[in-house]
Amino acid sequence: MTNTLLEAKDLTMVYGTVVKTHALKGVSLNIEPGEFSSIIGYSGSGKTTLLNILGTLDRPTSGVLRLLGEDVTKMSDLQLANFRNRNLGFIFQFHHLLPEFTALENVLMPTWIRSRNGSLKLASRAKELLELVGLKDRINNKATALSGGQQQRVAIARALINEPQLILADEPTGNLDSETTEQVYELLRNINSTLNTAFVVVTHNDHIAAKSNRIIEMKDGLITKDYPAAGMDRDVLWNEIAPVYCRHCNREISTEGTVALL
Ligand SMILES: Nc1ncnc2c1ncn2[C@@H]1O[C@H](COP(=O)(O)OP(=O)(O)OP(=O)(O)O)[C@@H](O)[C@H]1O
């Protein structure tokens, strides 16, 4: 019995019936518990399509996706919705907070889907999470009274409330200035190391991607490169440890590409 968190095999995605777009052309990858991966690639290479399928928000045209050992491609829409709510967290570029609700209420929102009876335990967990993301003093502020970076922090706390093992994030800092981007990304890395939550993050920001454990590069609907990254410490001298063994491609690979990202 493997404890691999996510196993994707030969995923394809074709949009349209008359005019067809082959957005994914056979993508296979595994994600292990606690891993922090970034997906990078040119616009239109299939990053969001892949992320949405990995997060069960969309179904692939073909291929198999196993999450926590379960074949999710075989689940009904209702089963999928429950599975998602229990096991996955999402962070998007536009945080989709409910503007008239407070930070605390927004964080608690995913728990209302399961039960309307908000327990005291959940409320205190939501407060802890808001504290973790640095918003202890903003718990009762309405979403509209928070800055962009603060709103994204609320969205991150919301993604954590159901204690997911995997968080999928699509350009989580795409809407933020560079300083706030650094802070939010650092926060994601801290959550990753403190709670051992695995992350798969789509980003256009190579500098940010270099702080992951792993970079997955896409082109034309395929993964073209998959290699370890420097992680939090940007001062790591890759030349000293190159080449590295890539367990995903089962061979030693040069870290040349990674050096270019630093
Ligand atoms: N709902 C859709 N219907 C039809 N085609 C789509 C749809 N969504 C995406 N596509 C097409 O699929 C391909 C991959 O798109 P996708 O959004 O996954 O790329 P991306 O790498 O995330 O791009 P970006 O970096 O610009 O967000 C593109 O050619 C896009 O036009």
UniProtKB/TrEMBL annotation:
Pfam families: ABC_tran
GO cellular component: membrane protein complex
GO molecular function: ATP binding; ATP hydrolysis activity; transmembrane transporter activity
Record bears the keyword Nucleotide-binding: yes
Keywords (A to Z) from UniProt: ATP-binding, Lipoprotein, Nucleotide-binding, Transport
Gene3D superfamilies xrefs: P-loop containing nucleotide triphosphate hydrolases
Domain (ABC transporter) ranges: 6-245
Similarity section: Belongs to the ABC transporter superfamily.
Protein name as it appears in the record: Lipoprotein-releasing system ATP-binding protein
